[in-house]
Fold this protein.
Amino acid sequence: MENGVVTKLIHNNVSGATGIAVKGNDVYVSGYSMVANTFESIATALYWKNGVPVILSDGSLYSQASKILISGNDLHIVGHEHNMKGNWNAKYWKNNVSIELPNGGEANGVFVDGTDVYITGRQGGVKYWKNGAAVDIPGGSFIYGIAVFNNTVYTAGSTYDSDTNVSKAGYWNNKTFITLSEGTQYPNAYSIAVIAQ
């Protein structure tokens, strides 16, 4: 919705929007679409530019675009794909071209700092990639948002202690976790921003 006016994002019969970015008069929305809302229907990663769908995957695997970011003239999109048998792969598209992210099951957030591209994700624990190189973060359960300031990497997500059944939302300052919740529910932190003072 822009200024109270709804723009329908349509492709196939079922579609979902996951992120948004704006450059000038152009609006980009990441997401997915599928023929039917059933387990057998394969979702296809895509984004819409001003309401027009741009397909990112070939449709052979279940795929989804999770976040979208514009930096300069470059369009960055992250997400995941899987074969419906438990095998997940993190995905990163730069200007519609797929770039491999090693040792990742999903990618959830993206941030650009100069020429460096940071992407959050997880597989057997949480991590981020800097220019494709994985950096593991200890103790994490989920990770989503990311921001970089003065060479410090801030990531948002949650931890989970299986012994106490306690989940805590928070963020990591590099690899140090700062708790934001009291740990009585199952919270999560989905985004983070750093403002210079």
Summary: The chain has a mean pLDDT of 90. The chain is about 0% helix and 60% strand. The first strand starts at residue 14 and ends at 23. Residues 105 and 123 are 5 Å apart (CA to CA).
